[in-house]
Design a protein that fits this description.
Keywords: Oxidoreductase. The chain is of the alpha/beta class. The chain has a single domain, classed as Rossmann fold, CATH 3.40.50. Helices cover 41% and strands 14% of the residues. It has a 7-stranded parallel beta sheet, sandwiched between helices. Helix 1 packs across helix 8 and helix 2 packs parallel to helix 3. 43% of the residues are buried.
């Protein structure tokens, strides 16, 4: 018996109240995937500290609080986490989303300075955030959650993106180490990887034909949106994710299988 595809799936909806009473920190929250994540966590009842180096074009919503912060500045991170704890009452959920995206170019043209710049933002910045939030996460009655936004390019190894992929690979490895080290405190640490999602950042490097080609390689040939990806983050932050740790989860419609 055959079945007929019913058309594109509806975007996932927030579960009202699921994260009520929690405080979330989302880095790189002013746009793209970060804004989608911050919106979803706030819609589920979390008080969200939205960290970025710039204010967004769209005003913040209810339960969202902006804090200016550069994740490569260790002193600024310590100061802003203290301010978040004083204002909102602690940190229960940390989403390390801030990152540098990449165009394409030969590895022969990659400088040491460029490598250090990508690692500073995409990997070291996440480490500094976890270190600054550590005491709050381990004391959280929610049992703290760390969710790192990695990249499936770590598995695909796209030519021409050496610095970006290497830095995201480092973040993926860090996730597993941190899951072991924080597991004794009941804190979960996971990495999540999106498909090629249309955001201002990705659109700066790829046109419609690239997005269409990516979709056509997927098992489910539908574009993944920020809302789809934010739903997976919200799951890991929720009570249902309390024993999921050390995992690398991909939301890409089955594209990585190809």
């Amino acid at each position: 018996m055959s079945t007929q595809h019913a058309g594109p799936a509806e975007e996932p909806a927030a579960v009202p109240g699921r994260l009520r009473g929690t405080v979330s920190v989302v880095t790189g929250a002013s746009g793209g995937l970060g804004r989608g994540i911050a919106d979803r966590l706030a819609a589920e009842g979390s008080a969200v500290a939205c960290l970025d180096i710039r204010e967004p074009d769209v005003p913040w919503g209810e339960n969202q609080h902006y804090f200016g912060c550069d994740v490569t500045d260790e002193d600024a991170i310590v100061e802003v986490v203290g301010a978040i704890a004083d204002r909102l009452g602690g940190v229960d959920i940390l989403v390390n989303n801030a990152g540098l995206l990449s165009g394409r170019g030969s590895y022969l043209d990659v400088s040491a300075q460029e490598m250090h710049r990508y690692f500073a933002v995409n990997a070291v910045g996440a480490l500094l955030m976890v270190q600054a939030c550590h005491d709050h996460l381990v004391r959280s009655p929610w049992r703290g959650r760390v969710i790192n936004i990695a990249s499936r390019t770590f598995f695909t190894g796209n030519a021409g993106q050496l610095a970006y992929i290497a830095s995201k690979g480092a973040l993926t490895g860090m996730t597993r180490v941190l899951a072991h080290e924080l597991g004794a405190e009941g804190v979960t640490v996971n990495a999540v990887m999106p498909a090629q999602v249309a955001t201002p950042g990705t659109r700066a490097h790829s046109g419609d034909e690239v997005f269409a080609a990516t979709r056509d390689k997927q098992a489910i040939k539908e574009f993944v949106t920020p809302a789809h990806f934010a739903g997976m983050v919200a799951y890991l932050a929720s009570p249902d994710g309390v024993l999921v740790t050390g995992q690398t989860m991909v939301c890409d419609g089955g594209g990585l299988m190809k």
